[in-house]
């Protein structure tokens, strides 16, 4: 029997591969991957079936058209490696044909792959792409649809590769099976279509469909195959024999390649260039000249690993990308364990990366000759530029060799499963109409249940821990399951768990393929760029070079800040190990919106760690992670307070104490394992890495494999056998414990220092960068309250923009003696549609005339510039609407304080109460402009009777500029509040003035 499976990647159904394997082992037969339109599950499917010894075929269910008319579907299965390549070509043709692209419904984002569950391919397009496959006409084939001409064409194109299929359901399928035997001359195999999750698959499918499409549909469409029908009997001995023959003749697949970086045909130059880069670096750092031998040794060691492992192409692309973006003035940062690379450091931007020697970062955390896996480098770019990496890569290696990966959203946390599950549950419950057993739930019910678990277990566990692990360990589970509606919702969440809910283009996964052969089908995203139907975890086994490109709002803010500095001829110099004397004090009170120091957990730990060095900053990040045990935090506090080194049992060794001194006796960092291996036992890089991997990933056998080398090495280095055994067993106690990648932490700290120095030296540019990057993020925006409090504590006040001094587009800074001010830009003032009043004011400012002008002077200039006519002209007098926007825009700007330093005329004092001054200025705008528009001007101007609503004005000014005036006599003081509304309203002056 051939069991045609629809896995979790299918739009209409799902089956756990492990469960299918279990059933196939019990019932016999072979599993056939038969997802419609995709086989992203293929690598996982092959690996698991081979491990279990279950016969299996990679396949794909393909919908066919004949002359543009849909005629049914076939299942194409690969009987050897060449068949897998054939299926790739067929699915790619299907994905890229004009009809598919035209009918795909794309989402709003450029990364959308769209929704199209009904892709198809012309039968004639199969011609020439059927090497190594069998084409099976099962249920829903052109034969069953009665398309005689289509069947005839299939037979002509497929020849002996075409097979019929019997359903083998006894009397239920007797007619179908007999017709199949007749139509295909007895060349039929026995199949059973399996599309199953469990007894409530309709519920899970409904939830998935609602989640993806945002609409409700009839859940009955998902119940078509809700029985896992193993154990069918073949229609006849002939069918059984042909089925067995197909299974026995299938060749083992070798499409999953060993993990290695393939040669993508680039001519490497960095191996020569790194030496001149070293000379240039040491020339600029004379104090480092005496360490030249250390640098040479580090470079030679790394180049040796690169050569042996074939990593040169990967290095080539990373280094070229860093140089490319830096040359364009785009901040680019290398993150991850790549910070341990001396070659990356010297070939990159030295002032923006940590020197691995200074930072004591170990290469073995990044690459070794014993770890057959990709280097771990995250290329971080501003959010406005990260997408350009694809264009860069295409220009560097060729457009046909570059693609993005698929990102699968598969819910595993309780929070996400509940969120999706409630959608499907309600559609399910509405059809059941049994409110006592299946009550209808509201979204507020989902939120309430989630909050009950959060109260019991904490937000991190509910959002990040595997749902089944949480439910099995939570104290709240039993009591909540007694409540019918909570029981129903938790049951719904279980149905959604592990189910693919949405597929999009991977926002960070970019792959380069040698010979433009991606080893998987390709499709197009909304912008028409190639996307490879493979996940990030499988790219390495398909022979693809994968790069993680991180979109960073932090770098976006720094990009804006650097741009403002460049325009002013200023620069920010960074030396991680030569920071201002008061830098660490500044850090403690200025962490708002600083990457990795902004969160509440790390803020709690900052006073405990009290950073005084870069190492301390790393400790603050690592020790704040939720996996750190309370007893470890207590040990850190105790050791820091007493100056002693109370070590964990078995670790009271002078060398280990020195390794643990920065973290005060607490195991926090991956590199601490590597250092113990190196310095205590003299282990090789490969054995040290095995030790780290065993502890981090709970691999007891791997841990024991290095025991003899560790113990013997520790004895050679002066320890007794008992001491060496004791240290190793103490390390065993760490298996499964949390540890942080120090190189990764150093990358975080480097960017944090950059942000802090920008705040420290250039507060205006820092604020502008942060505001421009986060102003649309409603979750982050409340933090601007804290940010302004930080600025206020430094003696920097925020005041409304004044047209005489402010920058119309960017925040501006002012210094008056010891007083420092920041003015927001005018971008958030709601003016008339064309905002041309700002153009008129900009002309005055550019001409240097504004500082000496009165309100009347400004109104007269803006009147002629705004209308295009001289004052007292008939054209304006006969059409008063020409000045309506000018009047309201000027009133708005005055109302918001943009003219607080202006008098009505050149003789008037402006030391009046602020509110009174604004009322007076507004009172003259309309009558003065109307007089300018009159053919017969009046000799005197009568101001309007104005009284502003102070409370309303404070609210409106707050919405516009994030500042609120406090009414005082004389010059006002300003205090800042957070903006809540996304767009401040344009005030109606007449309403306000009544």
Describe the structure.
This is DNA-directed DNA polymerase. The protein is an alpha/beta fold. Helix 1 links the parallel strand 1 (2-5) and strand 2. Strands 3-2-1-9-8-7-5-4-6 form a 9-stranded mixed beta sheet. A 5-stranded mixed beta sheet has the order 10-11-16-13-12. A 3-stranded mixed beta sheet has the order 17-19-18. The model is unreliable at 196-231, 907-911 and 964-994 (pLDDT under 50). It folds into 5 domains: 2-199 and 220-249, TIM Barrel (Alpha-Beta Barrel); 270-398 and 544-558, no CATH class; 414-497, no CATH class; 572-748, no CATH class; 768-993, no CATH class. The radius of gyration is 35 Å and the shape is globular.
Low-pLDDT stretches are 196-231, 907-911, 964-994
How many E-type strands? 21
Average residue-wise pLDDT: 83
**What's the shape?**
globular
What portion of residues belong to β-strands?
A: 5-15%
Q: Which strand order spans the largest sheet, edge to edge or round the barrel?
A: 3-2-1-9-8-7-5-4-6
Named at the architecture level, the CATH assignment of the largest domain is Alpha-Beta Barrel
Main β-sheet description: 9 strands, mixed
- Radius of gyration computed on alpha carbons: 35 Å
CATH-assigned fold name of the largest domain: TIM Barrel
Number of domains: 5
With helices defined by DSSP (H or I, 4 residues minimum), what is the helix count? 43
The CATH homologous superfamily of the largest domain is called: Metal-dependent hydrolases
């Amino acid at each position: 029997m051939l069991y045609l499976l629809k896995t979790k990647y299918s739009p209409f159904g799902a089956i756990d591969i492990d469960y299918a394997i279990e059933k196939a082992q019990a019932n016999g037969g072979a599993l056939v991957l038969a997802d419609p339109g995709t086989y992203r599950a293929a690598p996982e499917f092959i690996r698991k079936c081979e491990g279990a010894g279950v016969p299996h075929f990679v396949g794909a269910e393909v919908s066919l058209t004949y002359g543009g008319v849909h005629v049914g579907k076939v299942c194409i299965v690969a009987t050897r490696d060449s068949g897998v390549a054939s299926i790739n070509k067929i699915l790619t043709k299907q994905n890229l044909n004009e009809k598919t692209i035209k009918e795909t419904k794309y989402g709003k984002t450029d990364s959308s792959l769209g929704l199209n569950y009904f892709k198809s391919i012309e039968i004639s397009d199969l011609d020439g792409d059927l090497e190594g496959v069998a084409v099976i006409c099962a249920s829903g084939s052109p034969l069953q649809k009665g398309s005689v001409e289509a069947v005839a064409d299939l037979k002509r194109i497929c020849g002996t590769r075409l097979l019929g299929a019997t359903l083998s359901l006894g009397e239920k399928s007797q007619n179908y099976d007999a017709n199949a035997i007749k139509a295909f001359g007895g060349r039929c195999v026995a199949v059973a279509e399996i599309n199953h999750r469990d007894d409530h698959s309709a519920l899970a499918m409904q939830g998935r469909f609602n989640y993806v499409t945002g609409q409700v549909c009839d859940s009955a469409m998902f119940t078509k195959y809700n029985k896992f029908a193993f154990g069918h009997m073949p229609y006849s001995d002939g069918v059984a024999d042909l089925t067995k023959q197909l299974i026995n003749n299938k060749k083992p697949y070798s499409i999953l390649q060993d993990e290695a970086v393939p040669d993508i045909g680039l001519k490497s130059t960095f191996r020569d260039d790194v030496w001149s880069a070293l000379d240039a670096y040491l020339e600029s750092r004379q104090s480092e000249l005496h360490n030249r031998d250390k640098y040479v040794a580090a470079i030679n060691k790394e180049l040796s690993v690169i050569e042996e492992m074939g990593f040169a192409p990967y290095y080539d692309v990373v280094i070229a990308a860093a140089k490319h973006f830096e040359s364009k003035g785009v901040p680019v940062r290398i993150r991850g364990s790549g910070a341990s690379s001396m070659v990356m450091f010297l070939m990159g931007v030295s002032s923006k990366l940590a020197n691995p020697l200074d930072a004591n970062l170990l290469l073995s955390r990044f690459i070794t000759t014993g770890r057959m896996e990709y280097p771990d480098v995250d290329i971080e770019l501003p959010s406005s530029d990260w997408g350009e990496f694809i264009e860069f890569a295409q220009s560097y290696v060729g457009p046909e060799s570059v693609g993005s990966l698929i990102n699968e959203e598969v819910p595993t946390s309780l929070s996400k499963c509940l969120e999706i599950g409630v959608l499907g549950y309600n559609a399910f419950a509405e059809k059941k109409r049994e409110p006592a057993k299946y009550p209808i739930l509201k979204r507020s019910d989902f939120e309430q249940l989630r909050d009950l678990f959060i109260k019991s277990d904490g937000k991190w566990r509910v959002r990040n821990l595997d749902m089944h692990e949480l439910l099995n360990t939570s104290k709240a589970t039993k009591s909540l399951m007694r409540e019918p509606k909570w029981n129903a919702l938790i049951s719904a969440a279980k149905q959604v768990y592990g189910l693919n809910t949405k597929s999009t283009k991977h926002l960070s996964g970019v792959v380069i393929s040698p010979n433009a052969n991606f080893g998987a089908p390709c499709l197009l995203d909304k912008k028409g760029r190639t996307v490879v139907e493979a996940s990030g975890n499988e790219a390495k086994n398909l022979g693809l070079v994968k790069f993680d490109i991180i979109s960073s709002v932090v770098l976006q803010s720094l990009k804006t800040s650097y741009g403002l500095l460049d325009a002013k001829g200023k620069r920010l110099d960074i030396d991680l190990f030569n920071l201002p004397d008061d830098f660490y004090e500044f850090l403690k009170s200025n962490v708002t919106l600083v990457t990795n120091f902004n969160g509440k957990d790390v803020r709690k730990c900052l006073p405990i760690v009290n950073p005084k060095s870069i190492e301390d900053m790393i400790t603050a990040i690592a020790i704040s992670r939720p996996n750190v045990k309370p007893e470890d935090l207590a040990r850190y506090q105790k050791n820091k307070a007493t100056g002693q080194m109370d070590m964990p049992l078995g670790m009271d060794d002078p060398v280990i104490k020195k390794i643990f001194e920065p973290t005060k006796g607490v195991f926090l960092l991956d590199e601490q394992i590597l250092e113990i291996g190196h310095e205590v036992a003299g282990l090789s890089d490969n054995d040290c890495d095995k030790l780290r991997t065993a502890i981090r990933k709970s691999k007891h056998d791997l841990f024991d494999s290095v025991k003899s080398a560790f113990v013997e090495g520790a004895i050679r280095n002066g320890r007794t056998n008992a001491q060496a055994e004791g240290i190793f067993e103490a390390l065993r106690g760490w298996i499964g414990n949390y540890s942080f990648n120090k190189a990764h932490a150093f990358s975080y700290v480097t960017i944090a220092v950059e942000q802090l120095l920008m705040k420290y030296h250039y507060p205006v540019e820092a604020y502008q960068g942060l505001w421009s990057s986060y102003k649309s993020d409603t979750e982050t925006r409340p933090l601007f309250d804290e940010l302004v409090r930080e600025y206020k504590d430094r003696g920097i006040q925020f005041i409304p923009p004044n047209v005489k001094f402010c920058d119309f587009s960017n925040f501006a800074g002012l210094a008056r003696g010891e007083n420092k001010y920041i003015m927001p830009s005018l971008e958030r003032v709601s003016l008339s549609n064309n905002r041309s009043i700002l153009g008129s004011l900009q002309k005055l400012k550019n001409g240097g005339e504004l500082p000496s002008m009165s309100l009347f002077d400004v109104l007269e200039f803006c009147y002629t510039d705004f209308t295009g006519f001289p004052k007292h002209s008939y054209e304006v007098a006969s059409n008063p609407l020409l000045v309506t926007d000018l009047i309201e825009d000027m009133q708005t700007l005055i109302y918001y304080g943009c003219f607080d330093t202006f008098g009505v005329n050149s003789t008037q004092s402006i030391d009046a109460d602020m509110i009174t001054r604004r009322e007076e200025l507004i009172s003259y705008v309309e009558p003065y402009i109307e007089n300018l528009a009159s053919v017969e001007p009046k000799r005197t101007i009568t101001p309007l009777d104005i009284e502003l609503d102070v409370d309303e004005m404070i609210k409106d000014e707050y919405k516009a500029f994030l500042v609120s005036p406090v009414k005082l006599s004389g010059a006002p003081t300003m205090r800042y509040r957070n903006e809540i509304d996304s767009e401040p309203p344009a005030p109606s002056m007449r309403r306000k003035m009544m």
